[in-house]
Amino acid sequence: MATNTRTATPVPAAAAAAAPPAAPAPAAGPDASVPGEGASRAAGAAGPRFAGLSPQGVGMAALVLTVAIWAGFALSARALSASTLLPADAALLRFGVPLVVLAPALWRRRRRLAAVRPGPALKIVCGAGVPFFLAAMHGGSLTSAAFVGSIVPGMVPLFVSALMVAGGRGLPRGTQAAGLGLIAVGVVALVWRYLVPLDTEVLAGAGTLLVASGLWALYTVGLREVDLDPVGSIGLLCLPSLAVIALLVLTGVLPTGIAHAAGGDIALFLVVQGLGVGLCAGLLYAFAIRRLGPERSSVVGSLSPVAVVLLAVPLLDESPTLPVLVGVPLITAGVALANRRPRPEVPSRA
Predict the structure, then answer these.
(1) What span, in angstroms and rounded, lies between the C-alpha atoms of 220 and 237?
(2) Mean pLDDT highest for which of 68-77, 159-168, 185-194?
(3) Is a pLDDT exceeding 50 seen at residue 19?
(4) Per-residue pLDDT for 237 more than 80?
(5) Nearest C-alpha neighbor of 330 from the set 147, 154, 146, 71
(6) Which of 100, 199, 216, 345 has the fewest CB atoms within 10 Å, i.e. the most exposed one?
(7) pLDDT digit string, tens, across residues 299-319
(8) How far apart are the first and last CA of the chain?
(9) Which one is predicted more confidently, 70 or 222?
């Protein structure tokens, strides 16, 4: 995400979680005004190049790959209500599969994981763990894939910006502020038709998705505050999350039906949620956060709503409504505008 060089005000991009936008120029690096970004830039500059890409280009490539995976997350959030799995079952696959696959690597990182400060760890575990997952799944069951793919990543720039302002940064200005305004207008356009006549179910779902978006913004910021590689970040997220969901299942707070679920449903969610979102997207997104910083990494979110809307037509038989056709482009344009990097000022000659 771009930072206003005059005011040092960081403005986030959309998280793509499905999350998640026209990205800025791949060659543009993280802003040094964000704490830790200078070190990240230095590390990226010294890092390896792949296929002639700069370190920032490699980070952008990782974000592009996550778009497809995050779109799958949005689609699966909607498809869960029609499957034989329950939310707790999907969560067990989401957080359990990465731990099984990465168990040896996580064991080697056990000391670094134990040394993570409680504050950032809590941001990560709450922001992308069980609270986020259940909110996204429940919101998707009450709305549509387009809502999940638009609201969750689309509102992340606003939430990240709010977190930055709360941390002492100045308010966004100019085109960045206009972009955030467009995002808000786009979300209003999505839900407007459900206000008159009042559709409490869809509005409740949209509100739940807003909560999920705010949590994801917390996760995005928290990732940048920990000194862990992508594998360690996944372990930090999945280990406590699996423990929490297992406790909720064992105590009967959340019902489970995985023992009687259809094999096809289990396989689908294992691939999409466990391997895709839990493992691959986790590695790619954490990698991009370290290369590009949280604000710029969240820019990938603006591409996800479009991808979700297009994929939902053949896969879920969803037809884009007029609010979707209006709201999604507004959100996408808003994210792109909010992440527009201002040109550096050229000092005038005396």
Answers:
(1) 12
(2) 185-194
(3) no
(4) yes
(5) 154
(6) 345
(7) 565 667 788 888 888 888 888
(8) 33
(9) 222
pTM over 0.90: no
Q: Who contacts 291 (Cβ-Cβ below 8 Å, separation ≥6)?
A: 30, 40, 44, 47, 55, 56, 58, 59, 62
DSSP letter at 78 equals: H
Token pair of 239, please? 């280990």
Residue count of the chain, please give it: 350
List b or e across 261-287, with b for residues whose CB sees 16 or more CB atoms inside 10 angstroms: beeebbebbbebbbbbbbbbbbbbbbb
Contacts of 159 (CB under 8 A, 6+ apart): 12, 213, 214, 216, 217, 218
- For residue 110, the tally of other CB atoms under 10 A from its CB is 11
Contacts of 301 (CB under 8 A, 6+ apart): 13, 14, 15, 16, 17, 18, 19, 20, 21, 153, 154, 156, 157, 335
Lookup: tokens for 7: 């005011």
What is the CB neighbour count within 10 angstroms for residue 227? 12
Distances (CA, A) of 269 to 60, 85, 266, 335, 341: 26, 9, 5, 29, 38
Distance, in Å, from the CA atom of 145 to the CA atom of 31, rounded to the nearest integer, reads 33
